[in-house]
Design brief:
With 328 residues, the protein is of the alpha+beta class. It has one domain: 4-Layer Sandwich (L-amino peptidase D-ALA esterase/amidase), CATH 3.60.70. The protein has 5 helices and 11 strands. Strands 1, 2, 3, 4, 7, 8, 9, 10 and 11 form a 9-stranded mixed beta sheet that branches. Strands 5-6 form a two-stranded antiparallel sheet. The two termini are 34 Å apart.
């Protein structure tokens, strides 16, 4: 398996990603969409999720197709970004047909970034406009790090961010991941130089330092600094996708498998304070693939995407935590 040409989730033909952010707010929104509806499901393993329309993605629910997925900062306020995306889709004539009406289906998930140093004294919820702007910006190329939903993300010890990665399987199937990394846990070992994801890195995509040669790498998160920021930084929300034709139940199984990627890259993961969630998407452009192999590749992509999110993060005024790139 090798990365696709962009090493982004948009290596899957037809998928587009858009970002919108506000520097003063220290928050933003990321949207994944396509020119036509796609199949999706979801699996939640964190103890504190914030979501919209995720019940609809269960294999036994009626709607088969969705129009977009939203990852957003803003905690519960950020769910309004889905409304902005839905409004833009409605204006474009997109949505689930109900007689003469079209209802856009836009599930979403949020992360908590309300205490990251940004200005949060808004009168009108800013996330509706951010959602609409992110949807309008959607294209094949997009920025990683401190952009979109990753703008104000924090990990347990470093600044978080938006990450993505892809793999092309031996049969030509493409798999990708998109993540807003904001976990309670750390993504680096003690000292913050080596990523837990290092054994899965390809071509130096997040620094090329390799695995930490030390032993006992179950990061000690009991120090005062980690405790201070654990309450501020929680949730890894992600989308994994493939161009292989999968049913909703198969997408659900891929979402379950992809959570291994969070467990490999974040220590600890899936805590009571995290809202860890993975959407899984099928664009249905190729014949059905090997669900087990696709799930394995999705987990690998998600592991790498989380490390890339932190690796690509950039400093901004008022940051509460340092960026990986700025460490001596």
């Amino acid at each position: 398996m090798i990365p696709g040409p962009r090493n982004l989730i948009t290596d899957i033909p037809g998928l587009k990603v858009g970002n919108a952010q506000d520097a003063l707010l220290k928050s933003g929104t990321t949207v994944l969409t396509a020119d036509r509806p796609f199949t999706a499901s979801v699996h939640v393993m964190g103890g504190a999720p914030g979501t919209r329309e995720t019940d609809l993605l269960a294999p036994d629910k009626t709607v088969e197709d969705i129009d977009a997925l939203v990852l957003s900062g803003g905690s519960a306020f950020g769910l309004d970004a889905c409304g902005g995306v839905a409004a833009a889709l409605r204006a474009a004539g997109r949505g689930f047909p109900v007689g003469p009406v079209h209802v856009p289906i836009v599930p979403g998930a949020i992360l908590f970034d309300l205490l990251n140093g940004g200005v949060k004294d808004w009168d009108d919820n800013p996330y509706t406009a951010l959602g609409r702007a992110a949807f309008k910006a959607a294209c094949a190329d997009f920025n990683l790090g401190s952009h979109g939903a990753g703008t104000g993300a924090l990990t347990g010890t470093l600044k978080g961010g938006l990450g993505s990665a892809s793999l092309i399987l031996p049969d030509g199937t493409t798999v990708g991941a998109l993540v807003a990394a904001n976990p309670v846990g750390a993504v680096t070992t003690q000292g913050n130089r080596h990523f837990y994801a290092a054994p899965f890195e390809i071509d130096g995509e997040f620094g090329g330092l390799g695995p930490d040669p030390s032993t006992g790498l179950g990061r000690d998160m009991s120090n005062a600094k980690a405790e201070a920021f654990a309450a501020l930084a929680n949730t890894t929300i992600a989308i994994v996708a493939t161009d292989a034709r999968l049913s909703k139940s198969q997408c659900h199984r891929v979402a379950v498998a992809a959570h291994d990627g969070i467990g490999r890259a974040c220590v600890p993961a899936h805590t009571p304070a995290d809202g860890d969630l993975v959407f899984a998407v099928s664009s249905r452009d190729r014949e059905a693939g090997d669900t087990a192999l696709i799930g394995h590749a999705a987990a690998l992509c998600l592991t790498r995407a989380i490390a890339r999110a932190v690796f690509e993060a950039s400093a901004a005024p008022g940051d509460l935590l340092p960026c990986w790139r700025d460490l001596s």
